[in-house]
Input
Amino acid sequence: MRTKAVRLYGEKDLRLESYDLPPITSGEILVKIITDSLCLSSYKAAIQGARHKRVPDGVFDNPVIIGHEFCGEIVEVGDEWANEWKAGEKFAIQPAINYKGSLYAPGYSYTYLGGDATYAVVPREFMECNCLLHYNGDAFFHGSLAEPVSCIVGAFHASYHTKAGSYVHKMGIKEKGRMAILAGAGPMGLGAIDYALHGPLQPSVIVVTDINEDRLRRAESLLTKETAKKAGVELHYVNTKDMKDQANGLIDMAGGSFDDVFVYAPVQSVVETADKILNYDGCMNFFAGPTDPAFSAAVNFYNVHYNATHIAGTSGGNTDDMIESLELMEAGRINPAAMVTHIGGIDAVIDATLNLPSVAGGKILIYTHMDMPITPISEMENSGEPFLRELGSITKKHNGLWSVEAEKYLLSQRSDD
Output
């Protein structure tokens, strides 16, 4: 099978190449990848090359395919998995395989498996570890977004609370408690708000902060206070850029200190505000991954001792988190489309990945079987190209969001096969 893929050879060395995949063995599965959503983790791998902990040392001689948030269809199934998988089925993938303690993962470590490719080979270990997942949703892009959503789900499950006199940690957010999502108007923050409103447990109050008014306005238009009220949640959006006393201002807004605080930016002042607003037995989840290994912030250890405050941190989600994400999307309870602000084709992956931190907006969604420059969804309707104008009209019908209808139209017009 001929594939086209973006491969990593070393630091800032990405190449779009066409080449033949080897025939699959009885323990492998051949897949057609339809969508891959770009992640900042891929930028880190592209910048660091073999210095990245998941990238093999010999990457220059054995390049790896980048991209780990992907979804597609089964093409051919090895004999060992013929009772489990059939050609034509949709799949999603859990990249955090943790196979026999290895850090290897698709998008970082595999020669023939990664999201920014047209076709790929899934090795045996993914099926053995239940990391190749059945997906029954209508949209391929939802399947791609299941991985970042699973990171959010995992963070919510990793928060914990206790009772006085007990050493048992009750995992998960505090039901009907007060929640703050700091620096939360970006793509992952939007996913967190959606999950907090429509997941298995709801707080009574959510306060979302950011310092970018445009992001806040977009968040409020997509996940409205009225929608939150229907879920029994009081929702506030606040720009903290000019707040002199952020901690007390947020506590006053919520009617008390916070039981669960999520930090969505690796900024010292944001972490320290999170620490200051914790309630007794409050849990801070440091979600944002810093690039600086020496990143630190002040923590009030008086409160750790006397107020039983605690800190958790998560990186990625596990397979159960991924399955929960897929089920919530298949049931229509959550819609991660708000995360996506740009669409592009495989020819745009290299520049987009190497410049990902400078892209204003949310996630970039790649359709691997087409060529297309990275295009903001918000600008499609005013494009001089009829194809993009029609996409713009479709997204307008869906509150400016990417949708199943938009995806089907794009694939009918632009897919190379």
User: Anything to note?
Assistant: The chain has a mean pLDDT of 95.
